[in-house]
């Protein structure tokens, strides 16, 4: 039995355009199967999103965040999804930068 290394946990913050809250949640009710496959093939183990007003907070568990973004940058399923998200988000993600997420300040350690 091989032991898989612990995933990276990356926090992200995005912001909706005013009035797009319900549409964003509706679009995320079921993501396209080809996007689900692309995310998993890129090493995503889980992706959770919380919303507070217009602010969106994501926590991604992924094998390698930089490699995931490189794999998804030109993937047809993600390109289409990002075009749809650009209609809803205040700032679109064009996958051009060296995004590393929000820096961790503190975490309650798990008890062993």
Automatic annotation (TrEMBL):
GO MF annotations in UniProt: racemase and epimerase activity, acting on carbohydrates and derivatives
One Pfam short name: rhaM
Protein name: L-rhamnose mutarotase
GO BP field: rhamnose catabolic process
Transmembrane regions listed in the UniProt entry: none
Superkingdom to which the source organism belongs: Bacteria
């Amino acid at each position: 039995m091989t032991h898989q290394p612990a995933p990276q946990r990356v926090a992200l913050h995005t912001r909706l355009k005013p009035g797009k809250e319900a549409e964003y949640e509706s679009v995320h009710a079921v993501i396209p199967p080809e996007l689900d496959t692309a995310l998993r093939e890129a090493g995503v183990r889980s992706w959770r999103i919380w919303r507070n007003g217009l602010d969106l907070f994501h926590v991604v568990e992924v094998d390698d965040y930089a490699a995931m973004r490189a794999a998804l940058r030109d993937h047809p399923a993600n390109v289409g999804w990002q075009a749809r998200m650009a209609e809803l988000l205040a700032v679109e993600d064009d996958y051009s930068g060296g995004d590393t997420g929000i820096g961790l300040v503190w975490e309650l350690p798990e008890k062993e």
